[in-house]
Specification:
24% strand, alpha/beta, 6-stranded parallel beta sheet, UDP-N-acetylmuramoyl-L-alanine:D-glutamate ligase, 297 residues, 35% helix, 13 strands, binds alpha-D-ribofuranose, 4-stranded mixed beta sheet, single chain
Length: 297
């Protein structure tokens, strides 16, 4: 059983389903409203746990009603929350999400997530000992992400960094990452390059191995040699929210099977995740993921 540490955000997702996105100043009648757990860190933790991993999450929640619901939900997924702090003087993170025809628009208010510190990550170091992978994203302060890379290096654990939402990152940090897992726009943002060019040329500019996600087209990965393509798996799309998180959770869980197999299974898991509403709603089990993956061998 893989053991994974996730350092990252925990949000309550406030999801409105509508036929199309409203324009500026426009009021639309929506079809449905849901309050569902999310946040890139929590989503990646849940994805890995559903695939059978033992998962520790490092993060922060407010001591509010959303915080209570999110904490209980993560406990129910069997995730170790020893290093999730509850803060009295701030709210839990939220994401206001509009879903229209399978696409989404998201506004995140970090709140407690902005208070994850390097010191907190250092204090959680025991959780990194003996882990198979550390999963990071960029919805918490960069100093906490950098501290997690330091702690992982000391423990000899490979780091998967999902640079979302994208920001320019120092090459010194990227060089310490085992796999960077952006989409094309995120990779351009991380490197300070234009996103319109050839994604393979962008991948060649990164100072670390890159696994580039391409939505329904699957993923491309480059680990030293030429980029390799993994086809996507065809499914009916309901909601793409959390597909990237499912991909990352799966990558971490399957890393010990080698990069080809890890990316193939991660593509299968991500495809399954978009067939249901909500970031965590469609995250698949190990059995479902292996069944879909073996259908396209
Ligand atoms: O990656 C999807 C997640 O991004 C959502 O769950 C939302 O909380 C935002 O953080």
């Amino acid at each position: 059983m893989a053991r994974i540490v996730v350092v990252g955000s925990i949000n309550m997702d406030l999801v409105t389903v509508t036929a199309r996105f409203p324009g500026p100043g426009e009021t639309l009648m929506g079809e449905r409203f849901l309050t569902v757990p999310g946040g890139k860190g929590a989503n990646q933790a849940v994805a890995a746990a559903r695939l059978g991993a033992r998962v520790s999450l490092v993060g922060a929640l407010g001591r509010d009603a959303f915080g209570d619901q999110l904490y209980t939900g993560l406990q129910r997924e069997g995730i170790d929350l020893t290093h999730v702090r509850r803060l009295d003087d701030t709210e839990s993170g939220t994401a206001s999400i509009t879903v229209a025809s399978g696409e989404n628009q998201i506004v995140v208010v970090p709140a407690a997530n902005a208070r994850v510190t390097a010191a907190q990550v250092e204090k959680s170091a025991a959780a990194f000992d003996g882990a198979d992978a550390v999963l990071l994203q960029l919805e918490i302060p960069l100093e906490a992400v950098e501290a997690a890379v330091d702690v992982a290096a000391r423990a000899g654990v490979p780091v998967i960094l999902n640079p979302a939402p994208a920001q320019r990152l120092p090459a010194a940090l990227l060089k310490r990452v085992r796999y960077l897992t952006p989409n094309q726009h995120e990779l351009a943002g991380v490197l300070g390059e234009n996103a319109d060019g050839d994604f393979r040329a962008l991948m060649a500019c990164a100072p670390c191995p890159v696994v580039l996600t391409r939505g329904s087209e699957g993923a491309w990965y480059r680990d030293g040699g030429e980029p390799v393509h993994q086809r996507g798996f065809k499914v009916d799309v309901v909601d793409t929210t959390g597909a990237g998180d499912t991909f990352n959770g799966a990558m971490a869980v399957f890393l010990d099977r080698g990069i080809d197999e890890a990316v193939r299974l991660a593509c299968a898991a991500a495809a399954l995740s978009v067939s249901r509403l909500g970031a965590q709603g469609g995250m698949p089990s190990l059995r479902e993921t292996e069944a879909l993956a073996s259908a396209l061998k």
